[in-house]
Amino acid sequence: MNRVVITGMGVISPVGLDVNTFWDSLLSGTCGVDTITRYDTTGMKVQLAAEVKGFDPVNFGIDKSAARKLDLFVQYTLAAAKEAMEQSGLKSGENVPAERLGVYIGSGIGGIQTFMEAATRCNEKGPERISPHFIPMMIANMASGNTAITYGAKGPTLPVVTACATSNHAIGEAFHAIKAGYADAILAGGSEAAILPLAVGGFTNCMALTTATDPLAASLPFDSRRGGFVIGEGAGVLVLESEEHAKQRGATIIAEICGYGNTCDAFHITAPDPSAESSARAIRLAMEEAGYQDGDRVYINAHGTGTQLNDGSETKAIKLALGDEAAHRAMVSSTKSMTGHMLGAAGAAECIASALALQNGVLPPTIGLTEPDPDCDLDYIPLVKRETQCDIALNISLGFGGHNACIALRKAKA
Predict the structure, then answer these.
(1) Entry pTM
(2) What is the pLDDT of residues 1-17, one digit of tens each?
(3) Set 169, 245, 258, 341: catalytic member
């Protein structure tokens, strides 16, 4: 079995359009939540979101003509993939065979902006006026498809769609594919661009979003004042590669992916199972594959959405998975307190944060955590970053439908 490492990372987020800015923002506690600017929110319950700011596809090598044929979630994907591939130094057909390079990039929702626009045109002008680009712009696999086309990736390529667990599952499945020898390298991650009336209205009406009006008191994971998540957007892409292949070509290794857990609650379409048994099992599976040992210093990038049910259930899952004593020693934070919930892109962005936490010996904080919930009693790194070395990082994602994913990472070997 191959060891699997990260050799490239790229991100488009509400707190930065590249990895360095994203990481600096997380460590400084920068809040990416603000008033929605994409549409008029007059009379709407939800006024806040974590929008990507200042994004221009031209700055990422996507010309205006091409951009018109790509939904925003695909534009975000290609921008993040560009940064990841440039950092990795991989070139299909040169230092990796095209047939051994794959793409596992998913989206929880896909091209909902394209869907909204086409539905409006269909209703107003009839189906014969729908754009021929509608389907290939909307369908969720086009994040993977367009990335594969851009980089000549002819190996195993597929999207994953598991709501908010999408990109963690994509990374985990890519990890297992490389570990088993099906590919030498895979671009893995997720993308989302759903800050639109249709999506926000839908999440609002299923009681998932906060109706807070203060951006600094809106995304409040593990805080007693929490009242729902803040919708975010963006993309995260990682280049995963077999350690042998990476070393043969002299690549810089950022961190090692060493464990993956994938389970389902089989309980409810939106609510987590209050027993937390299946989510705990996902965490344990990742830990076991990673060779976790008692005494390992653990950092956990929690799903931590700021909903009442999720934060309590996740806290319970961590205790069940690690045992009560080890759970209270673990250091946990939710970077969603700063980025909002990037939906299908969340796991990948948080995997990047986890890798950088191991690499740099600095753990990002959970901002806004000033009134801890007594039922959420772990060490959530409140308010400010913490400088400390960890042996293992666990990145947890929990999605509608009961989908649970956990990725385990270790620091790159010197």
Answers:
(1) 0.97
(2) 999 999 999 999 999 99
(3) 341
